[in-house]
From TrEMBL:
Keywords: DNA-binding. One of its GO terms (molecular function) is DNA binding. It comes from the Bacteria. This is AraC-type arabinose-binding/dimerisation domain-containing protein. The lineage of its organism: Bacteria, Pseudomonadati, Pseudomonadota, Betaproteobacteria, Burkholderiales.
Length: 73
């Protein structure tokens, strides 16, 4: 992915193999195999996988979270 996207919910990811760079609005985090990352609601983000990088992530939509938690806005 090369363009920034805005998340509408919560994303929890896991680097399965290799290396991934996770960019938010102001920072870049280098994640290696075995690392877990979280992207919060309304954050701008993008991924940059290195040559052999593989990630897996679960994205919870805001509508789903709002039904489960009283204090989600």
């Amino acid at each position: 992915m090369s363009d920034f996207k805005r998340l509408n919910g919560l994303m929890i990811g896991f680097v399965i193999k290799g290396e991934a760079h996770i960019y938010d609005e102001h920072n870049m985090t280098q994640c290696n195999s075995g690392d877990i990352f979280i992207i919060n609601h309304r954050d701008l983000y993008r991924f940059q996988l290195q040559q052999d990088g593989i990630i897996c992530y679960i994205q919870f939509q805001m509508k789903y979270l709002a039904d489960k938690f009283d204090d989600v806005h």
